[in-house]
What does this fold into?
Amino acid sequence: MKHAMIVVTALAALSGTAQLAAAADGQAVYNKSCGTCHNKGLMGSPKLGDKEAWGPRIKDGQTALDESVTKGKGKMKPKGGHEELTADDIKAANEYIISKVQ
It folds into this structure.
C-alpha cells in the first residue's frame, strides 16, 4: 500500500509539472489555439509576424493584449473560442506573438 501511494503521488507531481511546462510554452499554445486564424489572417485577424498590424496592439502593452484575448475582440470569441486556456497560456502565447514582430 505504501508503494502504491508513492507511485500515485509521483504521477500526480509529474502530471502537474507537465501542465506547468505546457502553459509556459507560448509557441505550443499559439499553434494549438491561435494559429488557425492568425497564420492566415482569417476574419480580419492580424497575421503572425505582421509588424504593422501588431504594432499598435503591442504598444498598448502585454496586459491589454492578454485582456483582449480573454474577453474577445472583434470577431474573435473570448479566449479565441478555447475556454480551456488559462491566463498563463494566454500570456505565453502573446509573448510568443510579440517575439515574432520585434
In short: The radius of gyration is 17 Å. The CA atoms of residues 30 and 93 lie 5 Å apart. The chain has a mean pLDDT of 85.
